[in-house]
Batch of 2 targets.
Target 1
Amino acid sequence: MTVAADSATGAASLVQSVDWLAIAPPVTAATVALLVLVADLFVGERHKPLLGYGAVAGLVAALALLVPLRAGDRSTFCLTGGTQACSYTADHFALVIQALVLGGALLTALLSIGDTRKLPAGEFWFLLLASAAGAALLPAARDLATLVVALEVASLPAFALVGIKRGDRRSSEAALKFFLSSVVATAVMLLGVSFVYATTGTLHLTEIAARLDEVPGRFDTLAQAGVALTLVGFAFKTAAAPFHFWVPDTYVGAPLPIAAYLSVVGKAVGFSGLILVTVIGFPSYADVWGPALAVLAALTMTVGNVAALRQTATRARSAVRLLAWSSVGQAGYLLVPIAAAAYSSDAQVGSTVAYALMYAVVNLGAFAVAALVARTHPGNRLSDYRGLYATRPLAALALGFFLLCLAGLPPGIIGLFAKVTVFSAAVDAGLGWLAVVMAVNVVIALYYYLQWTAALFRSPEAAAGGEAPTQQKHRVPAPLTTAIALTAVTGIALSGAPQLVLRFAAVNLF
């Protein structure tokens, strides 16, 4: 009788509730992905652009479904036992990151419409939406199994998107490098997850945090190894040094909209996962991951900015490669508040969220202008931007504004304030040395951002005959114009009212 009762109790603990509204945003993106793939079978070549507009509509619907969840108080897939642990939580942190990744995917879709004529349209839109669904799932995941699954759902389509340009050797090489390095990082992360499970007997982050406090001494080394190895997979996604080596070649070899997608959505996935496992799952081992992340932050921002500085040595260098190295440097700044959370109970990882929101808007805007320039200059070299103001003044002004935001200079007020919040997080946590390293790197970054900005307003280079080259104007697709306008307007609005973003830096999102 007792055995039967125990069995009934155990079975009841496995019953999970499902809140369909809570999971609606990622489910909508995944559903539209399947619909687009099926529709591709019945749509002729002439009507392939309709698939892109369908993808845009699906992403807009997924974003709209975040509005009913704005209270941030819904959870689902919960165990019915005494712990009430849930695998999916739509709290304020999850909603902000979901808005970021779905908005980034939407802007990527706008950049891609009209630019997929030489690509398999059905597969392209399916892969983009599938990756966006995984990216939207990850910030709401509250157990290690769901985190790993969401990370792979976001990553696997991205491999195919990087190499989707058939017959392009550089694209295939970039996809292979991205795939192999990611597989190794995932394998290491899974080993770490297995160590954590072996020492705690659970995969839910809140329960892991409670049980790591009581790990027997003989398992302490195993737990520390599990914590360190679990962070590797997310460090790879954030492009933190020394896991950054895939970034430049991948961005240059991928279609330009996909490079923009990886630079923003890929980073959001990595940083949200890193925040979840460190702040919620492993607070007891802050002495392990805190110093490691602090060193990674210093190394990442230094490697990224120094490498970006080298790109300006010759204007024949690719502008996309410069943006790739710049994104590595920006990743270093994003790591600072997470590292600070290990040293101060008052440190808020909201500073990382605030900085990520600013970075997402202006970096996507910079890639949008790069996509515009690439229509007349496929090489997309830095020299191709000289005199852009003379031919496309609005695009030049927009790119100049985006670069000043990334540099943290007026009129890019939001970039300046975001950097100040990150700097303050390091100082308040007693990481003075990290604040000094960040200040030095900000100065280094000023050089290449300002050099690129100045080139936009110089007179076009003279040709061999002494005359300035003329640039033929091409009609800009409406979706591309919309993407540039949206990012520019959003960036200006945030600079005018930075409190809209910076309030995340002052509150605990969990």
Target 2
Amino acid sequence: MEKSAELLNISKKVVLKIGSSVLSNEKGSVNRETLKNIADQVKYLRDTGKQVIIVSSGAGICGVGAINKWDRRGDINYKQALCAIGQVELMEAYKRYMKEHGVVVAQMLLTAEDFRDCNRNLNIRNTLFTLIDEGVVPIINENDSVSVEEIKIGDNDMLAAYTAGLWNADLLILLSDIDGLYDKSPKEHENARLIREVYDLNTLVDSIEVGEKSAFGTGGIMTKISAAKEAGKHNIPTIIMNGRIQDVIVKVSNNDETKATTFLGFDIMSSR
């Protein structure tokens, strides 16, 4: 059995990060069919006895979809305004699709300062545990409408890793627009090789060629490597999957040879 399938089957507490590149279509607006499928997969995880926290990008894209404007995305104030509009749209969509499965969702908007401050950190943790105990699925995003450089986390890959550590998760899943980590960008090189398992993050960067990031996201493969490293500090493994593949989590869990990359820098299997 693939390590990714084994980890999915034994993990009980899962942080699921969904990138903007997964939620967007080619025009840069939100793909509701994908969002609905994510809700279906969350139900699958919960039906198999898992607790789930979602860290979701996509507020900016939803803002674009609401007012049909993207041309001023380089303007920080306009971008923050788009995120303020889009966060409402994003949560409305999650609420609708999760409600079809009888699942209640809750919104948490955070900044880096919330993780640095001990009191705020404790409050986040207590809120998360209370929501989970009540069967609610927390949906976390960075508070982009107020974040400036000093309090910005930078990317939701890292936000997901911080959340996983705070919650003491068993597994971090990063849904992206690629199958996993390649030795070079598969979008630019046909002979790119998928790295299925990673054990040594310290030497990994020297052995791969980093490609371009998504047109609609803020991160790239380096932020995912950084997130895996952060999660690894807490003995939490990370799996990168292609979130644009329908039912990708279910497929990986069933060990049907769906591609993925698993980050394992420690003896995780013996500790579960």
